[in-house]
Amino acid sequence: MAEAGIKSVTKPRPGRPRKAAAPPPPWVDAFLDMMVAERAASANTRDAYRRDLVDVAHYLTQAGRAPLDRASSDDLRAYLAHLSADRIKAKSAVKTVARRLSSLRQYYKFLVSEGQRAEDPASVLDTPKQGRSLPKILTEADVAALLSAAATLGAPEGRRLNALLEVLYATGLRVSELVGLPMNALGRDGRALTVRGKGGKERLVPLSAPARDAIAAYLPDRPFFMTKGRETRQQAFLFPSRATSGALTRQRFGQLLKDLAIRAGLDPAKVSPHVLRHCFATHLLDHGADLRSVQKMLGHADIGTTQIYTHVVSERLRQTVEQHHPLSATKRRVR
């Protein structure tokens, strides 16, 4: 087959020099500009679309097929088949194929709308079925251990980390939303945050009393994280940093959280900002919160995305019954 032996540009084999990728087709940049201007796509989303489309374009060129802008449905099927075969042992294969197909669908819809194509070759392609895994979470005791460890930290760095952790667990913000919070996100009374999420949509998220106290304790330390001569940029953020962007980076916060996990006696591999977002949602549902409220606080456009947390609660209830009910199969086997 023409595509045999072609390797994905996103996963070069160790030890082999990566070939320079060809520049993207002319309409890719126009598509990405549209995503930013009309759909408020973030820089990360823009970069992800670009990587996906460049990978497809590179494959089509190397396989001797039609270029991306003129590719047929068969060309795209060949690419997806190659991608699945190349990742046959990887657990992420189905998710990767689904994401690339989503990028292609958005791109070709754009080309059709711009009059660059008469038909959408991606519209007839089937999305691979994905087995949806349950979110990983920590127990309430684990989160309490994290919070206790953070509360004992002194110095400006410790008080900032404590405020970050309390806000994250109190609101379930995405990590990019958390570290990028502007100073004016904090209301006058400090009882809620105004958060700008995906697609530029704003939502109001209440703050718990511990989160408000942690922020109040941290605020006098904000100037410590600013660099002389760059205060104007850094002052815009609730959690400024000496990083080039002026705000604390996601990567740095993730590192600090893993260090805190070790201090709290937890496995750092099981602790991340996104895991704490899962904890926020699951623990709320555990204590009787309604799904619609959780959806609004998480900033999910579709309640179906939020419903995954009900499965977590149901699974935990099932395990509890299995372990503790006197007539459960587990108890009978033990006897």
UniProtKB/TrEMBL annotation:
Q: Output the CDD domains linked to this UniProt entry.
A: INT_XerDC_C (cd00798)
Which UniProt keywords are present, listed alphabetically?
Cell cycle, Cell division, Chromosome partition, Cytoplasm, DNA integration, DNA recombination, DNA-binding
| Taxonomy, superkingdom | Bacteria
List, alphabetically, the InterPro entries matched. Answer: CB (IPR044068), DNA_brk_join_enz (IPR011010), Integrase-like_cat_sf (IPR013762), Integrase_catalytic (IPR002104), Integrase_recombinase_N (IPR010998), Integrase_SAM-like_N (IPR004107), Recomb_XerD (IPR011932), Tyrosine_recombinase_XerC/XerD (IPR023009)
Gene3D superfamilies, alphabetically? 1.10.150.130, Intergrase catalytic core
In Pfam terms, one family for this protein is: Phage_integrase
Return one Gene Ontology term, BP aspect. Answer: cell division
Segments forming domain Tyr recombinase: 133-322
Residues in the active site? 174, 198, 274, 277, 300, 309 (o-(3'-phospho-dna)-tyrosine intermediate)
Q: Which GO-annotated molecular functions does the record name?
A: DNA binding; tyrosine-based site-specific recombinase activity
What residue spans carry the region label Disordered? Answer: 1-24
| Residue ranges occupied by any Core-binding (CB) domain in the UniProt entry | 22-112
Q: Where in the cell is it found?
A: Cytoplasm
Per the record, GO CC terms? cytoplasm
The record's comment on protein family reads: Belongs to the 'phage' integrase family. XerD subfamily.
Query: Which PANTHER family does the UniProt record give?
Result: PHAGE INTEGRASE-RELATED (PTHR30349), TYROSINE RECOMBINASE XERD (PTHR30349:SF90)
> Assembly state and interactors?
Forms a cyclic heterotetrameric complex composed of two molecules of XerC and two molecules of XerD.
Which HAMAP family does the UniProt record give? Recomb_XerC_XerD (MF_01808), Recomb_XerD (MF_01807)
Which NCBIfam families does the record match to this protein?
A: PRK00283.1
**What job does the chain carry out?**
Site-specific tyrosine recombinase, which acts by catalyzing the cutting and rejoining of the recombining DNA molecules. The XerC-XerD complex is essential to convert dimers of the bacterial chromosome into monomers to permit their segregation at cell division. It also contributes to the segregational stability of plasmids.
Protein name per UniProt: Tyrosine recombinase XerD
Organism, scientific name: Niveispirillum lacus
